[in-house]
Amino acid sequence: VTLFRLHGSTAEEPHILLECDSSVLDSIQKHLKLYKIRRKVTIAPCPDLSLWAVIPGEQPGDASSLPKNADPALLLTPDPRAEVMGWRLIAKKGANLSEIIPGSQVGDIQDYHRHRYKQGIPEGVQDLPPGVALPLESNLAFMNGISFTKGCYIGQELTARTHHMGVIRKRLLPVTFPAPLPTSGIPEGAEILTESGKRAGKFRAGAGELGIALLRLVHVNEPLCINLAGDRVKLRAATPEWWPKGAAK
User: Which intervals hold domain CAF17 C-terminal (predicted)?
Assistant: First the structure.
């Protein structure tokens, strides 16, 4: 999830907007209400709002057209995960986007997913399966997703110890296929192998010829493959340029 603070100061009544995977909206509401415990907190979905990703274009200076104060928008803020993801825009449903961001072009959801797969940015329960994905292996420490100073939370001891030891053997990485994936796709969790048959990791999700996979770092620079319906589908992994220097070691 991503949390956005809507109140301007601590003197105001706090208003927090939570962005989540729509497929788990009900379960997240139940989870939050479980911990409300008689507090005067209102938890409710916002069906009248729409979420947009504003992705920077290829030409230099594209960011300069982004308004500092977009009045028709409820929120226009840099994506907290990584600079390459541009901005998050939340506006009323039906708002005229060309008024909010002059010169912008509306893409489709696949354009967005292809962009984030290319950058190795995980999102939602398909990329980050609950109870399976580990925060450090999912690169959340690079994306403002982990605090090592806030105190205790579920899994904090293991996460902090692994971080300070500096030994992370597997990470989510962007992968590229030589051709678009078959229409049936690749099963979630499909095993990825090296050319010699060693287990290298598992496939998470993809679109077209791009995807994201949990891989052992020792095999990142090797030719990889997935056995799919009797065929060997080749793929290659890469280390994202936006990662901190030396992060893939």
Answer: 169-245
